[in-house]
Amino acid sequence: MQFSRLFYVIFLVTLSFSSNAQGLFKKKDSIVTKTLSQSWELEKKDKNGTFKLNSYKPFYVMPVHWSNRINKQPQSVGGEPVFDEPLELHSTEVKFQISFKTKVLQSFLFGKGDIWVGYTQVAHWQVYNQKLSRPFRELNYEPELIAVYPLNFSFFGVKAKMIGLGFNHQSNGRPDPISRSWNRLMAHFAIERNDFQLYLKPWIRLDGGTADDDNPEIEDYLGRAEANVIYRKNGHSLDLVVRNSLKFNDNHGSVQFNYMYPIKNNLRGHLQLFSGYGENLIDYNHYQTTVGLGISFVEW
């Protein structure tokens, strides 16, 4: 069974155990699980003002991150290989991600809307590769601007909590021929039920189809939409991210599964599984399966 099929099975199982989850995880009194309203300050009682740093995406360090098919000869669709010879890369490296957001404008639309600035950085570091002088294989920078408006209605026991629109830039900050970057206009929609949260993010690429495109057809590999299912309970977190190109013919995408479990205080163990295209920008059209193990930090 391919890893991608395995992750879809995990996705279905995760959704099915919500009624039994109360006794699944041992309680950690020191860890508080945030609701959608608390994470995005959607209700008046959760408002905390502007320019205060908040957690965004998972913040983690993985000393062990293994790929079954590490990209030793990156190239864009329709382009020539970047290097004359394949790089002597190790299949095991270090991966880490930092991510935070801050509100820059509060209560701007009918007294309810907010504007956030977010920043995420992901690093793939060949720290065990002494022969190549331990380089950073890939660094991805992702600033974004997001306008959020709270929702307050329910359907079939599910609460719609927010809708939004954002501008997202992602780049690896490198010169040609290994430069990778793109800009997206992203819609945001989030719902919640008990300890489950679901984010839906479709997007439109703003800078594709030009003669100097760094990564042609990136939306056909990295995707045109993302669904993020999150289950949090007593410090444990199951996080499933599915991206898809939304093409009926020649469909591509990826699945990433994260499990974070309490160790001590705000420190958690972190297991990550990925299968598909676009784990990072240099690999946007490269298929691989990866496994990562490390630590992450509780949302603040």
Automatic annotation (TrEMBL):
Enzyme class: hydrolase
Molecular function GO labels: calcium ion binding; phospholipase A1 activity; phospholipase A2 activity
Statement: the UniProt record of this protein carries the keyword Acetylation: no
Subcellular location, principal: membrane
Signal peptide stretch: 1-21
Subcellular location: Cell outer membrane
Sequence positions that bind Ca(2+): S133, R174, S179, D214
Listed transmembrane segments: none
Gene Ontology BP, a term: lipid catabolic process
Domain of life: Bacteria
Gene3D superfamilies per record: Phospholipase A1 (2.40.230.10)
Residue positions of the active site: H169, S171
Catalysed reactions listed for this entry: a 1,2-diacyl-sn-glycero-3-phosphocholine + H2O = a 2-acyl-sn-glycero-3-phosphocholine + a fatty acid + H(+); a 1,2-diacyl-sn-glycero-3-phosphocholine + H2O = a 1-acyl-sn-glycero-3-phosphocholine + a fatty acid + H(+)
Membrane topology: Multi-pass membrane protein
Co-factor requirement: Ca(2+)
Cofactor: how bound: Binds 1 Ca(2+) ion per monomer.
The entry's keywords: Calcium, Cell outer membrane, Hydrolase, Lipid degradation, Lipid metabolism, Membrane, Metal-binding, Signal, Transmembrane, Transmembrane beta strand
Entry's family note: Belongs to the phospholipase A1 family.
Protein known as: Phosphatidylcholine 1-acylhydrolase
Species assigned in the record: Gelidibacter gilvus
Top-level taxonomy: Bacteria, Pseudomonadati, Bacteroidota, Flavobacteriia, Flavobacteriales
